[in-house]
Design goal:
There is one protein chain. This protein is α+β, with helices and mostly antiparallel strands. Helix content is 36%, strand content 17%. It has helices at 6-14, 23-26, 43-51, 67-80, 83-88, 93-100, 115-137, and strands spanning 142-151, 162-173, 176-180, 186-189, 192-195. Strands 1, 2, 3, 4 and 5 form a five-stranded antiparallel β-sheet that branches. It is elongated and about 55 Å long.
Length: 202
């Protein structure tokens, strides 16, 4: 299996494709190929600090049962400009810390990365991504027609969680039938699906 440099793996995870209008602000630039975290602290300690104050998460909460259901709910929430519903579709800090990051490539050398940095970048990209989608389609009737997602075999090293994406959604907006990346990667685990990234084409 081909191993990508750290920066490319992160860009892949957040689905910051060449379609993005602001690639310089959406890509993760705090690491360069070959960089490692401060070796004074072991990964177990970084993870302990990241989980401090969080309830133990044993399963994804909310989300939907299938990728298609998630895309439909996403479009419905955007149409209503329902930010609470949109927030319920994306993984929480506790889910990331307990269910995703421990089995991710970035939890091990040579790509070891402080989960707090990883989560911080996800949070920033997600905030920008959802703002752009709402600015483009918020309050507009949207009808789901279909979706295709790319497989991801690079990021999760083990465990029950699986990542797919980015995804391209075919949908009706007014008189236009569009196919665009409305969000980035999805996490599938134990029969539930949630968004990991809101990175998009806008």
């Amino acid at each position: 299996m081909k191993i990508l440099p750290p920066l490319l793996l992160l860009i892949s995870l957040l689905a910051c494709t060449a379609h993005s209008p602001s690639p310089d602000t959406d890509t993760l630039s705090y690491r360069k190929p070959g960089d490692t975290i401060d070796s004074i602290l072991p990964m177990a300690e970084y993870l302990r600090r990241f989980r401090a104050g969080l309830d133990t998460s044993r399963a994804l909460q909310g989300g939907e049962a299938t990728e298609t259901d998630l895309a439909r709910q996403f479009l419905a929430a955007v149409s209503r400009r329902d930010t609470s519903a949109l927030a319920a579709l994306v993984v929480t800090r506790a889910e990331f810390g307990w269910l995703i990051f421990p089995d991710h490539r970035y939890a091990e050398q040579p790509y070891a990365l402080d989960p707090a940095l990883f989560w911080g970048q996800l949070t920033n990209v997600n905030a920008r991504g959802i703002q752009r989608v709402l600015a483009r389609h918020g309050g507009e009737p949207l009808t789901f027609h279909g979706m295709t997602c790319e497989a991801d075999t690079l990021q999760m090293l083990r465990g029950p969680a699986r990542i797919v994406g980015p995804c391209r959604v075919e949908y009706q907006a007014g008189d236009s039938l569009l196919t665009r990346q409305l969000f980035g990667s999805l996490v599938l685990r134990d029969g539930r699906v949630k968004l990991l990234s809101y990175a998009n084409d806008f």
